[in-house]
Design goal:
Order of helices and strands of chain C: HHH
CATH architecture of chain C: Orthogonal Bundle
Number of strands of chain C: 0
Distance between the termini of chain B: 18 Å
Shape of chain C: elongated
Number of helices of chain B: 19
Number of helices of chain C: 3
Mean pLDDT of chain B: 87
Radius of gyration of chain B: 22 Å
Number of strands of chain B: 2
Structural class of chain C: mainly alpha
Chains: A mainly alpha (148), B mainly alpha (495), C mainly alpha (115)
Largest interface: B-C, 33 and 33 residues
CATH class of chain C: Mainly Alpha
Oligomer: heterotrimer
Low-confidence stretches of chain B: none
Distance between the termini of chain C: 44 Å
Largest sheet of chain C: none
Strand content of chain C: under 5%
Helix content of chain B: over 70%
Number of domains of chain C: 1
Largest sheet of chain B: 2 strands, antiparallel
Low-confidence stretches of chain C: none
Order of helices and strands of chain B: HHEEHHHHHHHHHHHHHHHHH
């Protein structure tokens, strides 16, 4: 008995249950280590959005939208952009727009170093990830909606 | 200093409106109008700053150029900033009442402020890739705004515009990649420095052709104009005014000026190409505009024709011609947006744009008729309004430089312009009123206010050209004429 | 021409994408052609930054690297890829709405605006 709107087969659902948390964790790792290894905000944000999209593809749209609704994704996206702008405006404390105003920048190759760069990475990850998921959710919800 | 605020204020306003606009009903109106008013005030203040010290540089993040990105303000920058922010302030006043007819007004304001942030960013930046990023921000916002009403024709026009605009942007990116490979730096002044030391060869000409193709499509020059007559009528009226009034000038003409006059260096070949493109644009735009019956489509073809005047003036290259071209740029921004706002007011009251069905609206819509009379007279070149002086300066400069055939063509095109604007006035406003429009009301106060202010600026710019505007324009003209001295000025200030 | 073969292949890919945008009749094929154009330009930009014998431009603890490829084009291409993603999302949404209004994906039949 195949129920097309309820998602994919049992094998896909089991594997998704096991791996979707690991994908999200891997995305967070790439974002936080953006200043020591390749990656950063864009790539990590896309991987985090992909974990939610994976959930939507495997289980159907109701399950994924219950975890993160489309309105919440829009709000997260704007919050990410405002956080980035706020970090840039705080640079005026050091005298210039976008200035790296932390006083001790730590030693290189450590996790807590390089001033404002990890915070900017987190802001971009929020914006890109929430934005990509919101695009996908809007396109999926449009197919089943009314005809204007 | 306040150079980064030209980008911070619209970006902050856009994201705040997107976050809270659905819950708080009138937040979009208040924030957008406050934002554009503050931008207008600081751009007027920037004129005073530039007249004191010739050039201002802001190092973003404290990094010294050419390692870091810098923002540059000189005479041409402050001239473009005043034009863009003045027109966009009046358009946001207009759209308080006009956009009530559309749903999701707060999303309109978000996209509008993003487009404004992109345009301001293109004007103030001093770095090549930063220019590309802000160009893309403004372009993507405009693709979404053209499709805002989501009728069938608007979607088709937006699709055509988006595909052509994206191909043009990839031409520009290819040019930037080749330029980076040739000079290994991205700062505009540093590129000029490296290019003046290396021998100019085939590579710089190829890069110039790529940029002319890419930015020429954004400026609607004639081989690349096919998106404009579909995109400008389909957008809502404030966005048509914004696109025709400031968008094609900032992203097209300003970028061509900055890159060709200051960075790549002009030769007589480039001047000749600009003159040819300008003359062809004038003629084709004017000839196709006579046959139109839709008001906004006629105005869109007229935009192509007037952009031809500006590019023709820039191609002549003498100081008087560049003065005329920049003055015509300012005038055209003012009166073309006035005319598009008038067409928006007509559509708001009567729900149609077809000239064959309108008639005799002067008795029912006095403010709209009066202001559109000023706009039409100014664009046709009737003294003492502003358009007469700018066209006169261009034609005199063309005759002085020896382009007799082109000057005759420009005069003929001006007469054709008068013809189709008289057609517009006659069919829409004069004559007996049609039975269907007996009891329409005048437009709301916000729309009337912005149209009246724009009409006053049309008259004032013509009367005040000699005492006040000349110094304002001359500082912009001198930047373009100095050519490669741009880099010496910037490196002089940096030391 | 042997030193420039990779640049010539990139430009060939650009021309293939341009042919798709100009001559195909289905809207989705035009969008794919636009994707090929963006891909070719990004690839060209990264190849400009290649240095002979260089390795990836990442600093690692306790190792000194002598030759690296140029890291600046890589940062710029990252921005350009995200811009391409946004444009593709917007154009695909417009295409879906066009299908709903016109009932076809054939671009020769979507011609209500003339001239």
């Amino acid at each position: 008995m195949r129920n097309p709107e309820k998602g994919m087969t049992l094998i896909v659902k089991t594997i998704t249950r096991l791996t979707v948390g690991l994908i999200l964790l891997y995305g967070i790792y790439i974002v936080l280590h953006g200043h020591v290894s390749p990656g950063g905000g864009f790539a990590g944000g896309v991987i985090m959005a992909l974990s939610f999209i994976h959930l939507m593809l495997a289980f159907g749209k109701e399950v994924a939208l219950k975890k993160l609704s489309q309105a919440a994704a829009s709000i997260l996206e704007s919050l990410g952009a405002l956080m980035f702008l706020a970090i840039a405006l705080l640079g005026f404390l050091g005298g210039y727009f976008f200035f790296n105003f932390f006083l001790n920048k730590g030693k290189p190759f450590e996790l807590f170093s390089a001033g404002i760069i990890p915070l900017c990475n987190v802001a971009i990850c929020l914006k890109v990830g929430a934005g990509l998921f919101a695009i996908f959710a809007v396109l999926v919800l449009f197919k089943g909606s009314d005809e204007k | 200093m306040m150079l980064p605020f030209f980008v911070i204020i619209p970006l902050g306003a856009a994201f705040l409106i997107s976050l809270f606009g659905k819950k708080i009903k009138s937040l979009g109106d208040i924030l957008a109008n406050l934002g554009t008013l503050s931008l207008l005030i600081i751009s007027l203040y920037s004129i005073k700053l530039v007249s004191v010290n010739k050039i201002l540089i802001y190092k973003v993040g404290g990094w010294i150029p050419p390692i870091g990105i810098c923002m540059v303000m000189d005479g041409l920058t402050s001239f473009m900033l005043v034009t863009v922010n003045l027109v966009s302030f009046l358009i946001t006043i207009f759209s308080i009442s006009y956009m009530e007819r559309y749903t999701d007004k707060y999303r309109f304001y978000t996209l509008f402020m993003l487009m404004l942030a992109g345009m301001n960013g293109v004007i103030v930046t001093g770095d090549m890739f930063n220019l590309f990023v802000f160009l893309e921000i403004a372009s993507i916002a405009s693709y979404a705004l053209v499709a805002f009403g989501t009728e069938a024709e608007e979607l088709e026009a937006s699709f055509k515009y988006a595909i052509m605009g994206s191909v043009a942007s990839s031409f520009i990116l290819l040019g930037i990649a080749l330029l980076y490979g040739y000079t290994s730096t991205l700062n505009l002044a540093d590129i000029a420095l490296v290019l003046s030391n290396k021998p100019q060869g085939l590579m710089v000409s190829f890069i110039g052709v790529l940029f002319l193709g890419g930015f020429g499509l954004k400026a609607a020059l004639v081989p690349f104009h096919a998106w404009l007559p579909d995109a400008h009528p389909s957008a809502p009226a404030p966005i048509s005014a914004m696109l025709s009034g400031v968008f094609i000038k900032t992203l097209g003409v300003y970028a061509i000026c900055r890159i060709f006059f200051n960075i790549l260096g002009v030769s007589s070949k480039i001047f000749f190409i600009l003159v040819i493109l300008g003359v062809i644009s004038q003629v084709i735009g004017a000839l196709l505009a006579i046959a139109q019956n839709d008001i906004k489509r006629m105005f869109a073809y007229s935009s192509i024709s007037q952009m031809g005047y500006i590019i023709f003036a820039l191609g002549i290259g003498t100081p008087l011609a560049i003065l005329g071209g920049l003055f015509h740029l300012f005038n055209h921004a003012v009166f073309k947006s006035l005319l598009f706002l008038n067409s928006g007011a007509i559509e708001y009251s009567t729900d149609t744009r077809d000239l064959k069905r309108l008639g005799g609206l002067n008795s029912r819509l006095p403010i709209t008729g009066f202001t559109s009379l000023f706009g039409s007279m100014s664009i046709s070149g009737i003294p003492p309004l502003g358009g007469f002086f700018s066209k006169l300066i261009i034609i005199i400069a063309a005759v002085q430089a020896g382009y007799f055939v082109s000057a005759t063509v420009a005069v003929l095109v001006s007469i054709i312009t008068l013809a189709y604007y008289l057609k517009f006035q006659n069919f829409a406003f004069f004559g007996k009123i049609n039975k269907a429009w007996q009891d329409i009301k005048e437009v709301p106060w916000s729309m009337g206010l912005s149209m009246v202010i724009l009409a006053i600026i049309c008259v004032v710019s013509g009367l005040l050209i000699l005492p006040v505007f000349k110094s304002f324009l001359l500082s912009a003209v001198n930047v373009l004429l100095s050519g490669n001295a741009y880099k010496d000025l910037i490196f002089g200030v940096l030391k | 021409m042997s030193g420039y073969s990779e640049y010539v292949l990139c430009l060939l890919l650009f021309c293939i994408g341009l042919y798709c945008v100009l001559r195909k009749r289905n809207i989705i094929k035009i969008i794919i052609g636009l994707g090929i154009i963006e891909y070719a330009v990004n690839l060209f930009f990264i190849l400009v930054g290649y240095r002979i014998g260089g390795r990836a431009p990442i600093l690692v603890k306790e190792q000194t690297i002598t030759t690296m490829v140029d890291p600046l084009p890589q940062a710029l291409v990252l921005t350009s890829i995200v811009i391409g993603l946004a444009i593709t999302a917007l154009i695909v949404t417009i295409a879906i709405r066009i299908y709903e209004k016109y009932g076809t994906f054939d671009i020769t039949k979507i011609r209500r605006l003339r001239g």
